[in-house]
């Protein structure tokens, strides 16, 4: 009897070793905290403070500590500049103050310890060797030889000082960097380098693909495709088959025109800033008849349009301008050339 039990037990152990892993076990997915880090980084890099506020709150609710977020925003100064990093830090401070007023106490997390090592350049150089798995010359070839001070800043401040903090590991720090670079235009060569470094920290292409979804949601489909292109993945369709294009024709009561223009400008700006599905809201006035207003509106799809109608800023616009609009006509339009549409407003940058 004991022999039979032993054999059965042995078979169970062996079978557990050879049974294929389930889909959940082999799937490479980002944690809730990592997704929040990506969202915070992308919205900081693009200066979208309203969306950043949402990402910060979600991040805290998802379990990020105060110091993890502080370290994220501090690291980003090296990639998107001090102004956006400082704006993000001020936004985070306001979020924490608001939560404290509501008796929400967020954990500080691991203490941020200042790096006191004497040779920060050498520490940064070794960190970069670990991330790139490549020997790093002193100074760096090319830009480091041409401008030694920028090489020193890169090694000492970023990879020597910021990366020395143990509040975030190298994997999370590369998620921060990749998210920021993927969100910004004109930095594709740096994005390629950090994708390689990210892979060296254990970030998989499946996780990078998941990251592209976050970039698409918080920034744009175009920027998400920049990331996908660099990991050899299929690109997102820029336009949905049911993309909505329309023109609103209105006549405004003349005595309310100036007030209406102010409210309309605020609503259009809020829609573009806060709603990913709003591609364009472009108000115009007839030069000879200023009370005749035309608005070109483009939405990613019908769902984006319906969501727009439920937003607080649109409802406020609708309510406050009701008495100002003498006549309103909504005209559904069809795009003749969707591929060219992307470049229509491009030169205004």
Give a concise summary.
This protein has helices at 2-18, 23-26, 32-45, 49-61, 66-75, 77-80, 82-101, 120-132, 143-146, 148-161, 170-183, 188-200, 205-218, 221-229, 257-274, 302-309, 312-320, 338-341, and strands spanning 244-252, 278-285, 292-299, 325-333. The protein has 349 residues and is of the alpha+beta class.
Radius of gyration in whole Å, from Cα?
26 Å
- CATH domain class name of the largest domain: Mainly Alpha
Order of helices and strands: HHHHHHHHHHHHHHEHEEHHEH
Named CATH topology of the largest domain: AhpD-like
Main β-sheet, in a few words? 4 strands, antiparallel
Tell me the number of helical segments per DSSP (H or I, 4 or more residues long).
18
Let me know the CATH homologous superfamily of the largest domain.
AhpD-like
Oligomer: single chain
Biggest sheet, strands in spatial order? 2-3-1-4
Principal-axes geometry comes out as: elongated
What are the segments in which pLDDT stays under 50 over at least 5 consecutive residues? 1-26
User: Helical content, roughly?
Assistant: 55-70%
Percent strand equals 5-15%
Distance between the termini: 81 Å
In total, the number of domains comes to 2
